[in-house]
């Protein structure tokens, strides 16, 4: 994505509790002379701020023009990841565009193939099994988190349906009482005019 030199960009990630989130980014600055983005942006860094669903800051750190950040979620929900350049130019002069390449991986533990190749076959199978067990734990956490979300959604739906039912009953009672009042008023009017 593209941002201005002093602009902040935030991304929302829905993350289960106790889950590792790893983000890799790279910043490129727009070059006016070549009318393209430079391969890197020397001297330019990025502030990375991560907030949990309760707006508590989990991480706030300054990185270079490219880097990797990681955090572990304490609670499940929507975590906000914000990126902003550390440009010191005044807003009037900071008209340069930045291109940011961002890769966010939720719950992944990278599998190091080079370590496997250096080990013998038994250790290779051991490492692969450990990696599979980690993936199973991650999938289990994801499923539990989705169950929690589905339960909250079901509760909210049931409460809404109950409120709609009561509102319909109240509306029906109001309509019946207004109808009875109108009939009584009309009858009293006809009696007073001696039409009945």
Write the topology of this structure.
Blueprint (H helix, E strand, L loop, with lengths): L1 E3 L3 E8 L4 E12 L4 E2 L8 E6 L5 E7 L2 E7 L4 E9 L11 E10 L6 H6 L2 H72 L4
Antiparallel strand pairs: 1-9, 2-8, 3-4, 3-7, 3-9, 5-6, 5-8
What can you tell me about this protein's structure?
Pfam families: EMP24_GP25L. By secondary structure, this protein is α+β, with helices and mostly antiparallel strands. The chain folds into two domains: 110 residues, GOLD domain (Jelly Rolls), CATH 2.60.120.680; 44 residues. It is built from two helices and nine strands, in the order E-E-E-E-E-E-E-E-E-H-H. Strands 1, 3, 4, 7 and 9 form a five-stranded antiparallel beta sheet that branches. Strand 3 and strand 4 form a beta hairpin. The N and C termini lie far apart (80 Å).
C-alpha termini separation: 80 Å
Please state the CA-atom Rg, rounded to the nearest Å: 31 Å
Q: How do the helices and strands follow one another from N- to C-terminus?
A: EEEEEEEEEHH
Instruction: Note poorly predicted spans.
Output: 90-94
The CATH H-level superfamily of the largest domain is GOLD domain
CATH architecture name of the largest domain: Sandwich
How many individual helices?
Answer: 2
Fold-level CATH name of the largest domain? Jelly Rolls
The gross shape turns out to be elongated
- Tally of discrete structural domains: 2
Mean pLDDT: 84
